[in-house]
Amino acid sequence: MGQVGYKAQIIVSDGGSTDETVEVLQSYGDRIMWWSKPDDGFADAVNKTIPHITGDVVAIQSSDDYYLPGAFTLVEKAFLETGATVVSGSHVGIDLEHKIKWVGCHHGVVKAFELARNGLPQHATFIKTEAFRELGGVRPEVDMCSDFDLWYRALHHYPIYAFRDIIAVLQLHPDQRTVTGKTWRESLIASIEYAESAPQFRGKISLSDREKTELHDRWEVFWPRNTGDPRASEYALPKLGRMRGYSYETRAMIASTALMHMPFGLKKMITYLKCGEIGPFIWKRFEVMMSALAVRRAASHINVRWTEYIS
Which of 158, 191, 286, 300 registers the highest number of CB atoms within 10 A of its CB? Predict the structure, then answer.
C-alpha cells in the first residue's frame, strides 16, 4: 500500500453448508476463492485460508456481518497515517429487522488492559498479512475467542490503532456464538495466561494482579448477562464489596447486573449508595444516555440495508 487505493481478494472458507451457500458461491465464478468442506471450527476454517492469501492486509468476516461503503478506504488511510500493524474501526450491531441496537466506538492507540477489557470487533479489525502469518493465524485452543486471542498476541509485538469511523455491521441473532457460547470466560483467561507464559510473548506486556482480578470478575458477570442467564445477578452480587479499585465501566456493569431485577427509582439509588457505587450508578445512566444518542445519530447517517440494493 503506497497510496490510497486497494484491490480486494475474497476467500470463503465454508464448513460444508447444506443450504444454498454453495450455489451462491458458484454464482460468483472466479471472482472469489472458496471451498465448502467440514472443518474443526472457526479457527480451523480461518487458518485454512493462510496459504492462499495474496494481499497485504487480512480481515476476518463472519457470514452474517458486513462492511459499510467506504470501509476499505478508511482502513487503508488509517494504516498509512498511523503506521500501525492492526487497525480497527467502529461498528454497529443490528437486530433481525435491521434496527441499530448499539454503536461500538473506539479511538486512539490500543493499550493492553483496554483490549482485554473491551476487546476489538472482529468484523471491523484488520491486520497486516505478514504479522498474521508470523503469529500463526488464530489458535484453535481458544476457538471461542480466537479473534481476541489474535489481537492480544499481536499487541505484544505490534502497534494497534482504533478509529471512530463506523465501517462494519454485526448482525445479532439468537444462534450466534456470542449468545450460545458457554466457555467465553475460560477461553479469555486462557488467552491471557498463554501470552504471559509463551516464550515469544512473556515479559512484553504484564497485567497487574488487580487488573486480572477485575477482568476475571467482569467476564464471569458479562457473559451470563449477555446471554440472558437468569443467574447473572447471582454471579454479580458477591462482587459488590470488592470492586473499589476497578474501572467505573466494570463497576457499573457488575452493579447494574447485581440489581437488574430492582426497578429503577429512589430505592435503587439508595441501594447503589449503600454499596458505595453511586459514582458508577451515575456513570451508567450517562453511558445509557450517550449510547441512545449514538444509536440515533448512526441511524440517521448509516444505511445498514445498503447490501440489499446491490445487483
Answer: 191
